[in-house]
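User: What would this chain look like folded?
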Amino acid sequence: MTLDIQRFRDLMAGVCAPVTVVTTSEAEIPYGATVSAFASLSLSPPMISVALGQGSQLLARILRTERFGINVLEKSQEETARLFAARGADRFGQSTWAFDHGMPRLAAAASWLVCSLAQAVEGGDHMLLLGVVTDAEKTAAPPLVYSERLFGTHSVLLERETERKKKAKRLTLLGGDMQ
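Assistant: Here's the prediction, encoded as structure tokens.
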């Protein structure tokens, strides 16, 4: 017996997922797309996995270049997520970004990873890319997540961010160092 596709889609919509923009570059031209199928895979060596649709132009480019970047979006970057999910949009023309380790890096992302492609594994209508992380950077910003077809972030992360801002404001008022 095969599970109904819509039932499976609805079930998976309830799983909270990080929102990323996966990027690559060919001939110094940036390419990218919004992806929520992203996960940590290994600590030694540091590896991640990301899934892209078999027909994706981004997938074809990553398979050729064997390098890609992962921009883990920050909680306020819903519009960026929508932009990079839209077909035919001028994604990089409407975004603030720069090359970092040869990959397009979006401004204000919560985290940034640079990966070399270790393996590509077919999985139904998607391809699972296994990447070795060669460089990474994390900010204090809460990440954007997607669940039940809605963007948001985890409430505890918002509370921490609010407390950090309050502490920084108190230190500023007292003339203290914000670091």
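The first strand starts at residue 17 and ends at 18. If you want, I can go into more detail on any region.
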